Amino acid sequence: QVQLVESGGGLVQPGGSLRLSCAASGSIPNIFPMGWYRQAPGKQRELVATVTTNGNTNYADSVKGRFTISRDNTKKTVYLEMNSLKPEDTAVYYCHAVNSWGKGTLVTVSS
Asked: Which one, of 71, 91, 83, lies nearest residue 22 by Cα?
């Protein structure tokens, strides 16, 4: 069983930045992709970004150029650096890895 714990959400003004973290623990294989998804009120959960063990990344078009995903394999932790945040980025952000989900962390972008 894998446990994922997210942190770093909060309230930020438009144009601001936040950094999310997600630490994995439990029965973790040596090689596994990690990713961030988000779900806004009244909408379906959607992919934000993923990163493989060797660092290959994939982003949703809506966040390209503003968000950066990275990982520390020694800490089994994935990060999401979010810049130039917009109100439409408001959502609960979920970490995903090894067929498991974190509980989510709320990001609110509002003035």
From this structure: 71
